[in-house]
Design brief:
Layout lengths: L23 H33 L4 H22 L2 H25 L1 E3 L2 E7 L2 E3 L1 H4 L1 H13 L6 H20 L3 H17 L4 H21 L1 H11 L10 H12 L25 H34 L3 H25 L17 H21 L19
Antiparallel strand pairs: 1-2, 2-3
Helix pairs in contact: 1-2, 1-11, 1-13, 2-13, 3-5, 3-6, 5-7, 5-12, 6-7, 7-8, 7-12, 8-9, 10-11, 11-12, 11-13, 12-13
């Protein structure tokens, strides 16, 4: 596909097209990300004021911190749009290795909360490497699977081993949900990359065995599976969290209680600002609100797939697919947990749950998705073609 005339500029000109000449998918994705971010801030405001007032003495404590993280994440989102995918893909191996080392560091010097060591504390800032490494898993996965048939077995084994070590380190924290999400993300990208079906089935079986072993080894994970099967059996113990979430969702009815009028968040529903914030949303906006949000996720996924199909490069196509799967898939998993459709896990709802690390990661992924659309329209600076030398006269 020929580049547009405006794209034939120096590599420093990374956004040569004005807004009105952006692809429709890129403009629509920008609007969807803006709507998602604003909705997230509004929902966090409603879900957090009670616990913030009670624990921090300031009802706006969480929302003020989240707003600051939103500014930083917005800057990263814009940087992702302005930077070529070639540069991001070049950065991915180094960033992935550093992220893996930080995940390993959480096992040694990490801060332990609820029995899991997932954070590194640097003064007033908490770093959660498992969140920050997700965009670079997508980028490096795209590099690996797009060149699968052209690289040697040693390179394949090297990167598969590194991905496997990363997943094992995340499991060791322990963080089964993020490990499962990472494995599922890579598997779906490999499927989209056209890897042999037999290899994919073998990887899926290995992942299922690894997850089952983790559940058998860790008591708290077994408790969560048991409470998922029958949360009412121990509604004041292991099933308390899910029972309160189901009560919140059921209390929403058809149209909901109204914005800010959830009662389950008032000292009943645990972790209402992060993992179970969807339950607060469901209580306040009801079945209709939940259906609208699911339709929104469907539209987001549809636009993401459209962007992927418009990419001329298989590498860029896999980046777009990975970004879409990560944002939409993690959202669906979070909703499934809150509604009792799968065992309780620790996955935040992207761009809604409280947490700066999750917000940074989500908006970087969204920015990469927009960038894929821009480059599919010819905004990537064209490389000059080398001319073949003209053969001289014979003799």
């Amino acid at each position: 596909m020929e580049s547009l005339p405006q794209a034939r500029k120096s590599p420093q000109s990374l956004l040569p097209l004005p807004w009105d000449r952006w692809p429709a998918e890129a403009r629509l994705m920008m609007g969807l990300v803006l709507i998602w971010s604003i909705l997230g801030l509004l929902m966090l405001t409603s879900a957090s004021w009670w616990v913030a007032e009670r624990e921090m003495g300031d009802a706006a404590y969480y929302i003020k911190r989240q707003a600051l993280w939103m500014l930083a994440s917005g800057a990263l989102f814009w940087l992702a749009i302005r930077t070529t995918l070639r540069r991001w893909l070049h950065l991915a191996p180094t960033a992935l290795l550093i992220g893996g080392l930080l995940v390993a560091a959480t096992l040694v010097i990490g801060s332990t909360v609820n029995g899991a060591s997932r954070w590194l504390v640097l003064g007033p800032v908490q770093i959660q490497p498992t969140e920050l490494v997700k965009p670079f898993v997508v980028l490096q996965g795209a590099v690996l699977f797009s060149h699968w048939r052209r690289i040697g077995a040693d390179q394949k084994l090297l990167w598969l081993a590194l991905f496997g070590v990363l997943i094992l380190l995340i499991l060791k924290q322990p963080n089964l949900s993020t490990a499962a999400l990472t494995g599922l993300l890579l598997w779906l990208m490999a499927l989209a990359g056209g890897l042999p079906l037999l290899q994919l089935l073998g990887a899926a079986g290995g992942g299922a065995l690894l997850g089952s072993a983790s559940i058998l080894i860790n008591q708290y994970q077994r408790d969560r599976v048991i409470s998922f099967l029958d949360p009412w059996k121990d509604d004041q113990g292991t099933g308390y969290q899910l029972v309160q979430s189901l009560l919140a969702i059921g209390s929403g009815g058809v149209l909901g209680q109204g914005f800010g009028l959830s009662t389950q968040k008032l000292n009943y529903l645990p972790i209402q600002t992060t993992d179970f914030i969807f339950a607060v949303f469901a209580e306040e906006f009801g079945f209709v609100g939940c259906l609208m949000f699911l339709l929104f996720l469907s539209l987001f996924g549809f636009v993401g797939v459209r962007i992927a199909l418009s990419c001329a490069s298989s590498q860029h196509r896999l980046v777009a697919i990975g970004c879409t799967v990560l944002l939409v898939g993690q959202s669906i998993l979070n909703i499934a947990v809150a509604s009792g459709s799968m065992p309780t896990t620790g996955l935040p709802l992207p761009m809604v749950s409280y947490g700066g690390n999750s917000l940074l990661s989500s908006l970087l992924v969204a920015g990469l998705l927009v960038r894929c659309s821009l480059e599919s329209a010819g905004m990537e600076p064209a490389r000059p073609r080398r001319r073949r030398p003209t053969p001289g006269p014979i003799g």
